[in-house]
Amino acid sequence: MPRVYVSSVIEVPVARVWERVRDFNALPRWVPAVRESRIENGEPADRVGCVRDFRLQNGDRLREQLLGLSDYEYFCSYSILESPMPLTNYVATLRLTPITDGDRTFAEWSAEFDCAPEVADGLVSNIGQNVFLAAFSALKRQMAA
Amino acid sequence: MPKVVRSTVIAAPIETVWAVLRDFNGHDRWHPAVAESQIERGQPADRIGCVRRFRLQDGSELRERLLTLSDADMAFSYCLLETPIPLLNYVAHVRLVPVTDADHTFWHWESRFDTPAGREAELATMVGENIYNGGFAAIREHLARGEG
């Protein structure tokens, strides 16, 4: 089962980062690749089990389901229900941990999924670099602004 | 029961930091508070259950038992067996996590313990500042000296 793992340091307190990323419907506010998002059936974005239906700048459409959300441990887990990527059983977790030294944030984003062996490396690289790391980079720029 | 958490980022690859920290008998080479250390009964320092007996710069002696050590998770746990400082039921956990976008290391160090009534805040500050933050600074200097 291929695994993606990316981590970074964001130079602001964890509460500020969490405020931005905990909203399961807020990808367009902080992920440059995402154009628009909505939660299906008018449900609250912090209701575990809700589904976000979002569209990328390139027109691709994804649906993802919220599996877990913790304001205490600062993590959000979700699965992909529909996407253009050739993968299944995709589960990802975005997690923040305070860095007490300097009151900063350690941010981790990981995912596991199943796919055909010949596309595994490409998917791991694409998700790690173009999705997770790109989102962290955007977040760092926004938080520094 | 006080809980103390301290964390930092070390500007070195995780393998470098883990190579220093995984040696349960190596803290006398980097922690300024520790004068000398030995593992009791000649056991290997990575044998779960081994006990390190060490002396601080002020002469006091402590004994700590290794509870968990994982090269896969780059983490270890230990408890205090004997100490002149009134930290009771003290269990600490150290874990390292890679900061992948910079090839640095996130270091998380936490513990829980009991204290005599009224001394919780004083001892929690001592552990967090003198031992954990002091240890962070000492590893930075240790690695900067090329003793990784």
Short description:
The complex is a heterodimer of chains A (145) and B (148). Chain A is of the alpha+beta class and 145 residues long.
Low-confidence stretches of chain B: none
- SSE order of chain A, one letter for each helix or strand: EHHEEEEEEH
What is the helix content of chain A? 25-40%
Counting DSSP H or I runs of 4 or more residues, the number of helices of chain B is 2
Strands of the biggest beta sheet of chain A: in what spatial order? 1-7-6-5-4-3-2
| Rg over C-alpha atoms of chain A, rounded to the nearest angstrom | 15 Å
Strand % of chain B is: 35-45%
Biggest interface: A-B, 16 and 16 residues
Write the layout of secondary structure elements.
The complex is a heterodimer of chains A (145) and B (148).
Chain A: E1 3-10, H1 14-21, H2 27-30, E2 34-39, E3 51-56, E4 61-70, E5 75-82, E6 88-99, E7 104-114, H3 117-144
Antiparallel strand pairs in A: 1-7, 2-3, 3-4, 4-5, 5-6, 6-7
Chain B: E1 3-10, H1 14-21, E2 34-39, E3 51-56, E4 61-70, E5 75-82, E6 88-99, E7 104-114, H2 120-144
Please, could you describe this protein's structure?
The complex is a heterodimer of chains A (145) and B (148). By secondary structure, chain A is of the alpha+beta class. Chain A has one domain (3-144): 2-Layer Sandwich (Alpha-D-Glucose-1,6-Bisphosphate, Chain A, domain 4), CATH 3.30.530.20. Chain A contains 3 helices and 7 strands; from the N terminus they run βααββββββα. Chain A has helices at residues 14-21, 27-30, 117-144, and strands at residues 3-10, 34-39, 51-56, 61-70, 75-82, 88-99, 104-114. Chain A has a 7-stranded antiparallel sheet. The model of chain A has no long low-confidence stretch (mean pLDDT 96). Chain B has 148 residues and is α+β, with helices and mostly antiparallel strands. Chain B has one domain: 2-Layer Sandwich (Alpha-D-Glucose-1,6-Bisphosphate, Chain A, domain 4). Chain B is built from 2 helices and 7 strands, in the order E-H-E-E-E-E-E-E-H. Chain B has helices at residues 14-21, 120-144, and strands spanning 3-10, 34-39, 51-56, 61-70, 75-82, 88-99, 104-114. In chain B, strands 1-7-6-5-4-3-2 form a 7-stranded antiparallel sheet. In chain B, strand 4 and strand 5 form a beta hairpin. The longest helix of chain B is centred in the last third of the chain and has 25 residues, at 120-144. The mean pLDDT of chain B is 95. Classes of the chains: A alpha+beta (145), B alpha+beta (148).
